[in-house]
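Supplementary Methods, section 5.1.

A reviewer requested that the exact input to the structure prediction be made available. We therefore reproduce it here, unchanged from the version used in the analyses.
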Amino acid sequence: MGNERIIIEANKFYHIYNHAVGDELLFKNNDNYKYFLLKYAEYIYPIAKTYAYCLMPNHFHFLISIRSDIELLKFYKKKYVKFKDKLEDPAGFENPQGLLPNELISKQTSKHFGNFFNAYSKAFNKQQNRRGSLFEDDFKRIELKKDKYMKDLVCYIHNNPIHHGFIDNISNWKFSSYQAFLTNKNTNIEKLEVISWFYDLKNFIYSHKNETGNFKADF
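The structure derived from this sequence is encoded token-by-token as follows.
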């Protein structure tokens, strides 16, 4: 499936996914799902484009592409006070490994994902009166290079609730991006680009209903 600790680089596509620790749940009610997506919009939308997602009770899947180095740099310099210092003195105390600017940006991107998951975990633990880790050690990420794989992944992500026996109709799952493709409402999903992978909306819907099942994931 790929190395879950690969470096996240600008302008590349990734399948991002993770699972709750043990038999824990990531989402116990609708408000949990909504809060996770709210935090996602706050932390991840500024650094990545989103093409598909699905939230399940104990795991999630996202198909994203990381924004350009210029966009990332602008956001990180505004978001993190010390990040500007690291760039201006790449061999200094704040950067003992002497990483190049693009390497610093990649490292900061992985850290920023971690900050997103930590923000959600803290809120969830406080609400549920629990302690300890909520997610498995490190979020998984797989770089995507083939268009066919990406189409299969979109269908797999949206059909995840069916795969796990929660629903029979893909349209009945609230917490995936599938419905965003069927509406004219504004959304942060890259709808037009995704639909172009399938040629048109009609074939997008058909492909989801006739998923081959060739794509496999750990959960």
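The CA atoms of residues 161 and 167 lie 6 Å apart. These observations are discussed further in the main text.
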